[in-house]
Amino acid sequence: MNVQEALSFIQNRTSFGIKPGLERIEKLLSLLDNPQNCGIRFVHIAGTNGKGSTAAMLAAILQEAGFCTGLFTSPHLLRYTERFQVNGQEMTSGELADLVTQVAAACQIMEREGYDRPTEFEIGTAIAFCYFKKKQVQWAIIETGLGGRLDSTNILHASLVILTSIGKDHTEYLGNTLGQIAAEKAGIIKSSVPVFCGFVEPEARVVIAEKAIAMRAPVYYLGEDLLFQADFVDGSYCFDFIWQDRFRPGLKAPFLGYHQIGNACLAVAAAIEIGVNDAAVQNGLRKAKWPGRLEVLSECPWIVLDGAHNEEGFCALNRALEELWPQKKIIGLFAVLDDKAAEKLQTVFAKLSALIITKVQSPRAKDWTRIASYAPEGIPVYKIEDLAEAYQQARALCTEKDLLLAAGSLYMIGELRGLILGEKS
């Protein structure tokens, strides 16, 4: 396959939808000589929010410590190859084409043998394992796609597990209560493998604790076992990290937003458990990158991109606006796929001086204008389907002192980021 054929093969798999279960990925990987069993050590990360940020920070720390480090995340912002990184470098298009050719051949065998066709995410999971084996990765940080228990990444055996947060998202697949969702996320906990857990509600914590006890897995909770003291200095958070007799002072969260301190603590705890030295922790955090999450592209005017798309995400965005830009006039450019976080979305909209609503390029964005009803009375609201036109409208409403906030679906954020920076998919 060439690159375009490879991307078309992957894109065609999206029509198969989401099919939780491990039977297909087990068969697919067996046909590829089980690359997940080649001696790579894995950190497996699940959670409603914060997975990618935590993964990016930990990957940067391990790379700084001298490990050949792989990172598998989703979704991508602009290029599919962004999902697969080794030592901070994304996979090349040629490498993707070669790996998809191998995986596609295995898929054909599966289909001839009567197996269901692997989904798009299962294809991506197989590509990641094959890629990391080829690159002789020592540590791989793997982010679940959806849930955990039946997620295709749960075929691996982790050396460490991180649960970042538990919130109500993807309820059609994971359950309607925090307890049910927690049970799915906690499904990645393995026998005797340490678990680092972020801030979670009591209902979710009970479920996680029961699963950890059943698996005889030690679990360490943020705010109880993993402690921090933070100061807000010059627009960013500096913090001291404390875990039992381990004390790491003078750390700095590399990404904006108070919520990123907790994510940083989880990454630091995992690094300490692995045995990383203090200098690598500090320097790795400083070098970490995770675009599209409270990312500042410009300061004249301020242009900020954020992939907040659910209740937890909008809550974090609201706090960040209050802490980082309390006096700014804010022009909002939003695109979301659903309105399940209506209350928190209204709170963010209340801070806006104008709102532009645009459409996400996704089949799920049929009723893309409905969030206009959450705008406060008195502010102008524009509904512009084309993203480039919507951005130009938002830009026209901004003076050099204002803040243009683009938020919502990561699909929109990625496309807009490429548009602003002149990058191609």
Features:
425 residues, 20% strand, single chain, six-stranded mixed sheet, UDP-N-acetylmuramoyl-L-alanine:D-glutamate ligase, eight-stranded mixed sheet, alpha/beta, Protein-Tyrosine Phosphatase, Chain A
The overall average pLDDT, rounded, is 94
Q: CATH homologous superfamily of the largest domain - what is it?
A: Mur-like, catalytic domain
**Largest pleated sheet:** 8 strands, mixed
Name of the top-level CATH class of the largest domain: Alpha Beta
General shape: globular
Estimate percent helicity: 25-40%
* N/C terminus separation: 19 Å
Number of strands: 17
Task: Tell me the radius of gyration.
Answer: 21 Å
Q: In CATH terms, what is the fold-level topology of the largest domain?
A: UDP-N-acetylmuramoyl-L-alanine:D-glutamate ligase
> What is the CATH architecture annotation of the largest domain?
3-Layer(aba) Sandwich
Q: How many domains?
A: 2
Q: Unreliable runs, pLDDT <50, ≥5 residues?
A: none
**Number of H- or I-type helical stretches:** 14
Structural class: alpha/beta
Q: How large a portion of the residues is in β-strands, by DSSP E?
A: 15-25%
Kindly report the spatial arrangement of strands forming the biggest sheet: 4-3-2-5-1-6-7-8
Description:
With 425 residues, the chain is of the alpha/beta class. The chain has 2 domains: 3-287, Mur-like, catalytic domain (UDP-N-acetylmuramoyl-L-alanine:D-glutamate ligase); 295-421, Mur ligase, C-terminal domain (Protein-Tyrosine Phosphatase, Chain A, Alpha-Beta Complex). It is built from 14 helices and 17 strands. The protein has an 8-stranded mixed sheet, sandwiched between helices. Strands 12-13-17-14-15-16 form a 6-stranded mixed sheet, with helices on one face. The mean pLDDT is 94.
